[in-house]
Amino acid sequence: MRIATWNVNSITARLPRVVEWLQANGTDVLCLQETKVAQDKFPADALGELGYEVVHHGQGRWNGVAVISRVGIADVERGFPGDPGFPDDETIEARAIGATCGGVRVWSLYVPNGRTPEDPHYAYKLAWFSALTAHLAAQVAAPTPLAVVGDFNVAPTDADVWDPAKFAGATHVTDAERAAFDGVKALGLHDVFPRALKGDHPFTFWDYRDGAFHRGMGMRIDFVLANPALQSAVTDAYVDREARKGKGASDHAPVFADGEVYADVDV
DNA sequence: ATGCCTTTCCCAGAAAGA
Length: 267
Prior knowledge:
alpha+beta; Deoxyribonuclease I, Chain A; six-stranded mixed sheet; 5 helices; globular; DNA-binding
């Protein structure tokens, strides 16, 4: 079983790249973030031709998450109870979708950005983490392999940013955000640490601006978190930084996790 | 870097990203 997570920054803009990428690397389950298309505008047909089923939780211009799978998709959850929404719970954003694929429960997450520690979106981010953590608790404890993946918008340690000094006091590295991320892990989820195919740090995001990718100015903010049942099956994980190269790339690279997971798959 | 990209809305420039 090969699971991957990728913030594509618009599935519409990225579709040619995603199709080419799927044809090349044999991914079984791909979790997407920032699809940026309305619920019914996801290009499911193009992926269907490759043998993948799609479940999407989209809202249009912003956000949007999806799971695509060639090993089946069942028991879909769009969002979770207690999501605080922004600016209030009358306006829930499309940031979480869960599904069971080939015997593995997966969650594709796009955690709110936070913007700055003073911004209302920062408090929203922490509240969203809190509600997510409460909802995942029961699923972590289950014997089913569980992968909680996506763009967490947190750099958990100073090693996860290219220059910690430049991030002092900024969002993504504050104690409260790191504590929120650690709170998810504390449910019993292991950070499946990916190999970096170049350099010392497996960064997953490089800003479009300022030539950040070529200058190594990255962050590790996309993760695969695995419960014990899945973690024990993991054989390899790495960041596919090749996918960040060239014209028309997303600003995030995909993260792969491979595992020897055998389930009763009815596809 | 209160941003030198990129994407969406949709045709001009604002909003958002991290």
